[in-house]
Batch of 2 targets.
Target 1
Amino acid sequence: MAVASEPPGAYRAAVVHRFREPLTIDQVPAPELAPGQVRVKVEASGLCHTDIHAAHGDWPVKPNPPFTPGHEGVGIVTELGPGAIEVAVGDRVALPWLAYACGVCDYCVSGRETLCLQQRNMGYSIDGGFGEYASAFARYVVRVPEGIDPLDAAPLTCAGVTMYKAVKVGGTRSTDLVAVFGVGGLGHLAIQYAAIAGGHVVAVDLFDEKLELARELGAEFTVNANKEDPAEAIQRLGGANQALAIAASPKAFAQAYGSLRRGGTLVFVGLPADNRVELPIFETVLGAINMVGSIVGTRTDLREVFQLHGAGKTRLIREVRPLDSVNESMADVEAGKVAARVVFEL
Ligand code: NAD
Ligand code: ZN
Ligand code: ZN
């Protein structure tokens, strides 16, 4: 049995003090653990585009600065708060977006905990994984199985679970054509989960390097949206059964809609700052188009994601960087200069 280590007095973490201003790396005092919480020594933490939206205050519901982003943290439990019984000191755990849910509402008890109205979110309403330590609710962390590299587990904790769930929600079946709009952190895993479900993948992005990567990861077709209209190109393939709108751009959502065949499903995943998209009513009705939002995934989904990775079915494309590069890394993600995911090693 592992022995709890001394609580840290203070530790280094990346902090947003004001929206749209650079983050600073501060010494932050270690908070006392609330009932049910554990302290985790973070080993790896992925940079999701959501962290950039958080740091910019892009969305209708905003975090309250100062705060530490990060909802792809992975690390080792070092200390148990009062009543934390779900994990033990020494366990390796993932700290996902769903940091806390009530456990008793209709959503929680029907396997839809990510819809809980009492939820708290890692790196948004509570401090996240961009630090040497983080505190988390033991009931909502997910154990990382032995043999999975924490640098791989990190991007699986949001990008992986989100796209695994989105493919489930879209209902991909073998022989379906799945259009993946945006081959970034989420998209590079979307291609793999769609293929695991038996789908054929057409990937869309603005950069040829991303499309090359998409092909390496199993996409059969690719479209550069800067060079041709992806909706037309995908219609020439017969139209998509599911289109996964991941890129943080309303234009990509409209094109994803336009790429569908009749009866197809548009899955909303990306969360652009520009919160509107215009879609036609007539074509939606006559084409019996489905539209559905998909928000991260449950603890069960994340367990399944780890199981698939442990079985060798997924591959992470990631650039390992120090936390000090947080501002530069956010700028690189926004510029499309990152091969899929940046993972901070702590
Ligand atoms: P990312 O920056 O890693 O990837 C986005 C990709 O989209 C990039 O490769 C970029 O080149 C491409 N792109 C940009 N504009 C495009 C366009 N018009 N057409 C085609 N491709 C385009 O971002 P990410 O981390 O994968 O996150 C994507 C979005 O998903 C963000 O808005 C994020 O907040 C959101 N998100 C949603 C959930 C959820 O649960 N629904 C979970 C995590 C992230
Ligand atoms: Zn995320
Ligand atoms: Zn609930």
Target 2
Amino acid sequence: MTNLDLYNIINAFNIQGKVNDAGVYGSGHINDTYLFKNNEPGFPDYLLQKINIHVFKDVNGLMSNIDQVISHLKKKAILTAPLDPDLNVLTLVKCKNGQLFLVDNDGGHWRVFHFMKNTSSYDQVTTENQALQGGLAFGSFMSALSDLDPSLLIQTIPNFLNIESRLKDLNIAMHVDAAKRLSSLRDETAFLLERSSAMMNILQLGKSGMLPLRITHNDTKFNNVLLGEGDRFQCVIDLDTVMPGYAAYDFGDAIRTIINQGSEDEKDLSKIQLNLPLFAAFTRGFLFATSSFLLELEMLSLVQGVLLLPYMQAVRFLTDYLNGDVYYKINAEQHNLQRTRAQIQLIKMLEKNVEELNSIVLKEWIKIKNNHSAINIS
Ligand code: ADP
Ligand code: GN1
Ligand code: MG
């Protein structure tokens, strides 16, 4: 894409002021993101995104989901002082023809958001305050969407966090072995397949009606929350996968990126160590925001989500590696394998600490239930 192409695309949207050249932005694995700064003071900067249509097959449905989620969150923000609908909720910019997205001459699909100025998104968490704020952000997000009618939303990626279906995909990928990589992956496949039945628990509890389906974010890695001044949570972003799910999914995926002192794709596995104070801080924020509606069984399922989400990621990364890297963006030939190994190492560390993790959740739950208003979360 040349700068002129991008400039023509952004100008098909209802933007105000006059924008500069685009710069590639962010470290997401799915969409292509560009930042346009505004030359005219007082007008917003814009974030242009090329939607990954290999991942999102129904862009109309996807954008209608996002539009409805945003409208609902903005209404809730107006009612919830001191939240501000412009600062605490994404703003989608429509095309000049009124559509929510643009299709270019080559079939590329584009959308535009207001860029949230003076915010940070972190690939890794370093302070307890950041972790606490992440917990408040994702917990409040779930809370704010608890009264949105789920039947309004489509499944943007069918069976997205359905582990049964993800394991089927892995088995197919192993069978087809498209990239001829299976023979070197005996350890990784054995590790994952050994755990497959234990990982069905949340799904089974859900199917039996014991865990309620809620509207969840489903992609709560830490760089999908923007922190503002003083690292206070400002806005949850990346709304592509907001759809029905279980509370443990959002908790587990956030913890996957918070508790790990190494990166998601860490090469040096010895760096993958758990940071339990960060776990406790996120848990405190999450439970503070959700304890008024979260069932006791959901609270008890959270640590299962902490094991499930890295497991699901490992399954997904390995499936993509076997398929020849067709889903996630990669920056090296073995990137998906490195990601798989890092998630497997994280699972090993988590398995050793399950009791401790459960006792932290329980301790935070009891503290909040006994003394909700006295918890200092500022
Ligand atoms: P992907 O699906 O590829 O992860 P995201 O929507 O998460 O795409 O955007 C990628 C990155 O761009 C985010 O991690 C964040 O750093 C940044 N970002 C996204 N939306 C905004 C926004 N409205 N304001 C500021 N930064 C944003
Ligand atoms: C992708 O879009 P991004 O980078 O926030 C992926 C998530 C994975 C994550 C792993 C739609 O998230 O499911 O957890 O990578 N998003 C999609 O880093 O597949
Ligand atoms: Mg993202």
